[in-house]
Design a protein that fits this description.
about 300 residues; alpha+beta; four-stranded antiparallel beta sheet
Length: about 300
């Protein structure tokens, strides 16, 4: 019972720490980037409470399990980028690529040929091993153009900022060792929120049919035959809408008047009659009416 309470008390009072060998590796990588004199001058630029942990001589003499408080370790990491670099994080990214390349070049099962995201996923142990008594958030999700990696040191936003730059460098090194087939130029975007940082790596081409949504289907209008003219079209519509007129048996239908019985206008003269027609038009002798002197009644004289 006493042991359990002692373990609980020790767990409650444990502090977050950073491995001393990790600080040593970072400073040695900085020497390869900016030179030994620049790293040696770093100790003089730091406050006394940090200068002790920034000495390469003391760090090289430390044991494998030696640690420094995380608050002081994260400040040393950010000071390396601010005092030895331009403060943009580029120096820490180069250091992260250097350290990750050494891990990947050792062979084994860390680097996966042709699988960029899988190689980054296998670097989780490399990134979380330096931290003691503090969990490291490491969540990798694949997507159509690459992957998104969320990292963070719980409760330590400054340590998260330093690890963000180191992780970007590790991703660049993993891209070189994985040799992803069909990969484009690597682009990395970072989004920060308190003690979380999301790194989005885009390196896969996106097909055109996936980038653009297909257009909505439209019903094709029926093909219409061209009409000869407007009058013919109107006549066709009237013929199709008005029913044909049928003869009513109760209403007598007038017979058409023959052409010979139609009245002629006064301006038109009848055609001259031939001799044969003139003789045929006279009535027989028995049907003539005699008035006055006896003579046959004839028609009008032919001019």
């Amino acid at each position: 019972m006493v042991c359990a309470r002692a373990q609980e008390w020790i767990g409650d009072t444990s502090v977050s720490e950073l491995r001393s060998w990790f600080l040593r590796n970072v400073l040695e990588a900085a020497e390869r980037q900016v030179g030994a004199p620049a790293v040696a001058s770093l100790r003089a630029k730091l406050p006394p409470r940090l200068a002790t942990h920034a000495s390469l001589e003391q760090l090289r003499a430390s044991a494998a399990l030696d640690t420094v408080p995380l608050d002081e370790g994260e400040e040393i990491l950010l000071s390396v980028d601010t005092l030895l670099g331009d403060g943009s994080g580029k120096l820490l990214e180069s250091i992260g690529a250097d350290l990750a390349s050494r891990v990947l070049s050792q062979g084994g099962s860390v680097a996966r040929s042709g699988d960029f995201a899988g190689t980054v996923a296998r670097l989780q142990a490399f990134l979380e091993h330096p931290f003691v008594n503090v969990p490291l958030v490491f969540e990798l999700r694949r997507n159509q153009t690459g992957f998104a990696l969320t990292i963070g040191i719980t409760g330590h936003s400054r340590a998260t900022r330093a690890m963000r730059h180191l992780t970007i460098g590790a991703i660049v090194a993993a891209e070189r060792f994985s040799r992803q087939v069909g990969a484009e130029h690597l682009r990395i975007a970072a989004e920060n929120s308190a003690d979380r940082s999301t790194l989005t790596a885009r390196y896969l081409p996106l097909e055109a049919n996936e980038e653009q949504a297909p257009p909505p289907s439209r019903r094709t209008p029926p093909a219409r035959t061209p009409t000869a003219s407007l009058s013919a079209e109107v006549e066709r519509i009237l013929r199709s809408t008005v029913p044909p007129r049928t003869s009513d048996p109760l209403i007598p239908v007038a017979a058409p008047v023959p052409e010979s019985n139609r009245p002629r206008s006064s301006s038109q003269r009848p055609p001259p009659l031939s001799t044969t027609d003139a003789d045929d038009s006279q009535p027989p002798e028995s049907m003539t009416l005699r008035v006055g002197p006896a003579h046959a009644a004839r028609g009008p004289a032919i001019k």
